[in-house]
């Protein structure tokens, strides 16, 4: 089970109340790509909001954090830290800071 | 009992305003989709409970919503808008070529014939169609691949397809308008398109002032009983065609400014037209700080200001292109929303006005459904 923290607008869209959701069925090795794959399978309404439908590129104003590191610009298939893969730490999907 | 349902899209969510045919007392529901830019919400003419909404966010992109119960509940539908083939390039602000990139849906036009069919006008300019209630979208790519496509350029708001008109008597005929490319018409259901801009003149924006394309058309309007007559609010100039766009002529007449965004036609009087003059393209507010709707009962040229109930001093809001609509009650109602968050109604064809709400976020679109 992988823990994922969603930004407020995506929680509303997915109709979940808690900022953190648990995702089963994440393919190994656990990467940003496999987490978003599983997240979109569980919550199809999130398709296109985190990454492009076809190119699968992360949207410019979405960032990925893991273990207090910004991994947004790491290759999408980079294995994530064991803490995330084991469910000890969440994977963060964050709307980029913007505005005052 | 009959009544109206006004669908308001704002910068920070959607609102639904309802009233009976008197249009004096209003119920306000919202914000729906709070925090999101709601570019447009529109109901099906065939099934008024079927609503479509375009929800947009710089962070999370395009989201499409559909309601089957008049806005009480909503479901997320398809948001995959993929250009057909390799989209190519169009002209950028500096005259160089720039790749076509999907950004958002500006306008939704539900079919006059089928509640599951809806058109979407998008930025960068293209027309999409869904025949399954918004679940999937297919580009009518004959428009974007028009031979002039590389000459289309973005207006200040982006290169958007913002207006879609359907000919009630001919399902194969559509009119669209794009900023800044101009107007186009199809007579074969969207397979092929003709640029219909003859008569438009843009000396301040184009090196060739009467070019085939490149004109910044802001909005089009048609009365369903006269589908060959289309009214246009251009960047500058209010225009009219009586031959389905083959030729346009100016009807600005005595307007205090012929710059503006929306244009609308009275529900029962095909020669009665409404515009909201704005001072200029560099000063997007009403001339003299007076918010005035202008009405022509002669199909243009002769315009009268409508001011009763509207602020006549220190008003510096704009009225955006999709933020004006008419109902079809016996006494035709006119509605418009401002960038200052007001939505005004006139239940008497524009003679008197009243604010339904005064403090919404920036109003981006106003549509009205007449309910029986």
Tags for this model:
heterodimer, A: 100 residues, alpha+beta, Ubiquitin-like (UB roll), 5-stranded mixed β-sheet, 3 helices, 5 strands, B: mainly beta, 4-stranded antiparallel β-sheet, 0% helix, 39% strand
Commentary on this structure:
The complex is a heterodimer of chains A (100) and B (372). Chain A has a five-stranded mixed β-sheet, covered by helices on one side. Chain A is of the alpha+beta class. Chain A has a single domain, classed as Ubiquitin-like (UB roll) (Roll), CATH 3.10.20.30. The model of chain A has no long low-confidence stretch (mean pLDDT 95). Helix content of chain A is 22%, strand content 20%. Chain B has a single domain (3-371), classed as YVTN repeat-like/Quinoprotein amine dehydrogenase (Methylamine Dehydrogenase, Chain H), CATH 2.130.10.10. Chain B is built from no helices and 30 strands. The mean pLDDT of chain B is 97.
Shape field of chain A: globular
Strand content of chain B: 35-45%
Spans where pLDDT lies below 50 across 5 or more residues of chain A: none
Strand order of the largest sheet of chain B: 3-2-1-30
Structural domain tally of chain B? 1
Q: What would the principal axes of the Cα set say about the shape of chain B?
A: globular
Would you count the extended β strands of chain B for me?
30
SS summary, helix count of chain B: 0
- Quaternary structure classification: heterodimer
How many domain regions of chain A?
1
Please count the helical segments of chain A: 3
Q: Give the CA-CA distance, first to last residue of chain B.
A: 6 Å
Main sheet properties of chain B: 4 strands, antiparallel
Give the C-level CATH assignment of chain A: Alpha Beta
* Total count of strands of chain A: 5
Identify the CATH homologous superfamily of chain A: Beta-grasp domain
Arithmetic mean of pLDDT of chain A: 95
């Amino acid at each position: 089970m992988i823990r994922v923290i969603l930004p407020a607008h995506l929680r509303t869209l997915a109709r979940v109340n808690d900022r953190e959701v648990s995702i089963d069925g994440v393919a190994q090795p656990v990467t940003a790509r496999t987490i978003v794959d599983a997240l979109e399978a569980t919550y199809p309404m999130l398709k296109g909001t985190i990454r492009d439908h076809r190119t699968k590129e992360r949207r410019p104003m979405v960032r990925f954090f893991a273990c207090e590191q910004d991994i947004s610009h790491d290759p999408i298939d980079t294995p994530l830290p064991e803490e995330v893969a084991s469910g000890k730490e969440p994977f963060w999907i964050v709307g980029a800071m913007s505005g005052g | 009992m009959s009544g109206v349902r006004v669908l308001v899209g704002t910068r920070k969510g959607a609102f639904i305003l309802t009233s009976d045919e008197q249009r004096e007392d209003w119920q306000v529901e919202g914000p729906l989709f709070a925090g999101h830019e709601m570019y447009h919400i529109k109901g099906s003419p065939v099934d008024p409970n079927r609503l479509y909404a375009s929800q947009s966010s710089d962070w999370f992109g395009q989201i499409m919503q559909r309601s089957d119960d008049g806005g009480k509940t909503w479901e997320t539908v398809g948001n995959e808008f993929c250009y057909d083939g390799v989209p190519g390039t169009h002209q950028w602000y500096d005259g160089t070529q720039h790749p076509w990139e999907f950004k958002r849906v500006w306008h939704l036009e539900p079919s006059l014939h089928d509640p599951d069919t809806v058109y979407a006008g998008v930025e960068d300019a293209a027309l999409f169609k869904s025949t399954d209630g918004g679940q999937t979208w297919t580009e009518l790519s004959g428009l974007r691949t028009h031979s002039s496509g590389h000459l289309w350029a973005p207006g200040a708001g982006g290169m958007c397809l913002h207006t879609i008109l359907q000919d009630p008597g001919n399902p194969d005929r559509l009119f669209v308008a794009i900023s800044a490319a101009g107007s186009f018409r199809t007579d074969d259901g969207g397979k092929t398109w003709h640029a219909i801009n003859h008569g438009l003149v843009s000396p301040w924006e184009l090196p060739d002032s009467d070019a085939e394309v490149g004109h910044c058309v802001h909005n089009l309007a048609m009365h369903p009983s006269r589908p060959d007559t289309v009214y246009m609010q251009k960047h500058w100039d209010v225009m009219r065609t009586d031959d389905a766009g083959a030729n346009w002529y100016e009807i600005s007449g005595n307007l205090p400014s012929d710059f503006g965004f929306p244009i609308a036609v009275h529900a029962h009087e095909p020669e009665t037209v409404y515009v909201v003059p704005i001072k200029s393209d560099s000063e997007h507010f009403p001339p003299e700080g007076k918010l005035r709707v202008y009405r022509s009962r002669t199909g243009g040229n002769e315009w009268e200001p409508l001011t009763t109930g509207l602020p006549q001093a220190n008003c510096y809001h704009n009225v955006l292109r999709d933020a004006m609509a008419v109902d079809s009650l016996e006494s035709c109602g006119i509605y418009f929303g401002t960038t200052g968050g007001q939505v005004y109604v006139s239940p008497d064809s524009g003679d008197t006005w009243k604010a339904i709400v005064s403090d919404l976020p920036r109003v981006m679109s106003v549509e009205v459904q007449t309910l029986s």
